[in-house]
Amino acid sequence: MPDVSEHIAGLAKRGSEPVVVQTLRSTAAATLAYMAARWLTDVTAPLLAPLTALLVVQVTLFATITTGVRRVNAVVTGVLLASAFSAVVGLSWWSLGLLILAALTAGHLVRVSEFVPEVAISAMLVLGVTQVAETALDRVVETVIGAVVGLLFNLVFIPPVWVRSAGEDIEEQARRMRQLLIRLSEEADENDSPHPQLPDKLEEARQLDHDVAQVDASLTQAEESLRFNPRAKEPLLTRIVLRTGLDTLEVCAVILRTMSRNISDLAARRTDEPLFPDDVAPAMRELLTNLAGAVDSFATLITSQVSSAADEAEAFLEVELEAARISREHVAKLLLARVQEHPKQWQWHGSLLAEVDRMLEELDIQKRSTNLAAELDRVSREEREQYPRLYRMRRRAQRLQRRVKRAWQARTG
Fold first, then answer.
1. Can you tell me the distance from the alpha carbon of 241 to that of 253, in angstroms, rounded to the nearest whole number?
2. 10 Å Cβ neighbour count for 354?
3. Does 103 or 91 have the greater pLDDT score?
4. Span of 78-82, 137-141, 196-200, 369-373 with lowest mean pLDDT
């Protein structure tokens, strides 16, 4: 029974992933587009309608609105080119090659940006089913129906906000960083020499850069899902909190890679003795363990901006940072007392402490608050300058919302 429960829970979790949701949404939109085209036209198999709907329906409402016009433009251009070719030369190997060349060229001319290949794809599909639709007008009508159905589908069935999945990815990234710090702390307290596991940990630290890139893609999708989406609450604040938080974790990943490199170089020069002396090793382990806890608390803080969980995470982060600072000072004093024993290795000790200082500075709560306020001001100023009318409308809507809220509270209170 526990295995069955875990399996069902896993399926339920995968059911909320963007890929699964988008698959179901695209299928439904394409089917509706086909049914609408059958009802509104005389074409027996209006396949262009579901094709266009598939291209238009995106995982976020912002992507649908911003890319939908270019996608429709690409499909219509391909349809018109294929109609002209089918009427003049028909389908053959040389006409297909000429059609692809003309379609790709036309895609650049009509400025469909990244959807240039879709011009050629649409043209080839239409040229292959030229017997289905009798006139170019039928094909254009099918395309328009598919585009309208796709746009209306995303407007009626508004796509989800993908903040939670992005937050989970950020927390997973922090978990990997925390685990690496804990393993480094265990290695620092290891009495055996040499240390064959350190190269693996260095490679693991390098892998964090690739992981950050994947999290960045997930966060970009979450940011798009917040734009123009009525489901989103405080979209600007949420976007900036998550983005600045991921930027901090990215810097910490670079610091962690440098720290791993320093420890690995230090171990390479201590082939017949422990990595750190007996009195330094426990303090170094405590320092790295406190840093691991700070990274974990920081991720919890940025993924739970509003609620009591955020206050609790901030309190834990402050405790972990203070403990790490105390541990750092203790380690520095111990290393300073030992510097005469290994005078040629003091630079690795100093570099290690400098990287610890950098990570503590990046995770500092006060610095984060300052950066967050500065970023909010910058983004608000850019939006105000770029979209002045939209900004004024938003401000009026916010004032009206506050008035309605106060009136309701006065009436019910």
1. 18
2. 14
3. 103
4. 196-200
Question: Would you state the structure tokens that stand for residue 380, as one six-digit string?
Answer: 């608000």
User: pTM higher than 0.85, yes or no?
Assistant: no
Helices 163-188 and 281-303: crossing angle in degrees, nearest 10, is 180
Instruction: Give me the sign of the Cα torsion angle 14, 15, 16, 18.
Output: positive
pLDDT in tens, 307-320: 556 777 888 889 99
Positive or negative, the CA dihedral 305, 307, 311, 313 is negative
Tokens describing residue 329:
């000072």
